[in-house]
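Exercise: predict the fold of this chain.
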Amino acid sequence: MHIASPAKKPNGSTTTIQKTNNMNKKLLLGLTAAIVTMSSCSNNEEEIASSGTFVSINASMENIQTTRATVGDEGDFAWVSGDKICAAVNNNGTYSFTSLSTTSAGTSATFTGVIAGGGTLADVAVYPYNKDDKYDGSAVTVNLPASYEEKEGTLLTPMVAKIDNGNANFKYAGGTMKWTIIVPKGATSVAFKSLDKQITGDFTVSSDQIVATDATDGSEVTFTFTATTEKTTKNFYLPLPVGEYTGWQITVSDGTNTNKVTNESASADVKRASLVILPSLEFVSIKATAETKLTDGVTKVASEGKTTYTVSSSAEKETSVLDAIREDINNDQPESAVITVEEGAEIVFNCSNSYDDDNSLIESSNTTTKEVVIEGSGDNSIVRCTGGGVMGLTSNIGTTKFKNIKLIDETVYDYSKDSWEFSYLELIGQIEFENCTIADGVQVKGAGTKVKFTNCELIADGNKMFTTPTKENACWILDGTADFSGCTITGYRGIKIHEKYGSEVESVNIDNCTFKNITQKRGVSIGDIYANGVTDNWNKTHGNTTITLTNCTFTNVCKESDYTYGEDYIWESATDPENTTGFTFTRSNNTVTDATE
């Protein structure tokens, strides 16, 4: 059974596999099932051949339901020539299945075959044909194989039909998950492993459905195909028992080498007769080259389009290590580079005493490298910033992503020891933090800068404020765009949004964050936000500024404020958010707990 040409082509999203990313789901619309009818043969249609009784059956199936999906995919399921079903045969109380096939195509089809050995057509049929399916006269057991030969657009989810007076309507016994996988040249198989469910073997149909059972190590289904001659997009329709699936491991192979990604976010509730469609995943490469030594304590593995550097705890905790990695990245120019910082290891950025310097890991706009990921295993994987501290942490070309690391600022700030405003570690360019601890106050700075914090802890402990520690904010947005999602902010002060020295804040989004034990200011402190079209003392003409504060919790946060506008514990502002042209401030669903006077 195949999927007919869609009325509309799907509009899908692509996630390049560097680590797994994040999935939105919306309803799949417009899938209709093929309609078929089944009837018994009349006497003059039935002939006795030397090998048995010839039978002819017409088939029908129920509509498929779509409960969760990410792609609009309008099309029909239809039979094609060569499709096979199992028809149950009763031979004196002993039951077996025989294969019937069709040469028809469309939303109805005629299946024909021969019943051998003197048996008669019984009351059950199953799609697709599988020699390992079973029927004992009352219960049907369908077998889900561990491997399939991939055929584009083929739906193999089991359906069972009860034959009644020569007619039957096939009903889906399980559900289907559609994966769109972009495989590299040379790929010969893609495997899907459920992390928590048994998805292969025998399943007995009960109440019209088969149900997944828990499996400690999960189970895997492999689709094989002819080796690809170029990067290819393939659609796989994975038949599944009914159940709630919490994560998957997807493996692409060329027969010798493999590349695996674990996607724990690909959870889905697969219901009977449902189709769940997931965003496409891209595997950049399969075969990795041998591990080589880059420098003491640092190894390198290069594959097609991706290079991984592993920094061990034995590597020197000096800027020379990162300098060697930076040089190698810019020489090789992989599409992506991953720097793995093992537990107990550090990488050190030199933040010099000059704004003319740049410590970006991608050095040329002409390079093919688009992003560098620095990934650790928690607070014992350190990214340390040292030096004069004027420059800060920069990513002016491409994107630098930090995951599961602790960021420590040890810059000296010789030029401004008496100025608290310049004691922050500046974040400049395109930078993302995920599951990180930001141990010292940071500042989002520079025109066009975009910084994203996801599930991070930001701490303002005053360690870098030489004369007035209590003035430290966990983050000061001076320029550009900043996003905070699922973060925890603690310390003297929370998030500050303030335009000064000709800076321009474009947008700040704070959602689902927790502010706790903020002792000196309310959680969010807004200073000067210039109206659209106003030119400031630094000859900067300002545009619009948008701030969103939603779904946040404020626990044991300072109530008092020396600003004119605000809401106890939650926010304060020196700028009127209701009457400043171009300044939009949206806040909703924020909660105060353990309020203190």
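Check your answer against the key: The chain is about 0% helix and 45% strand.
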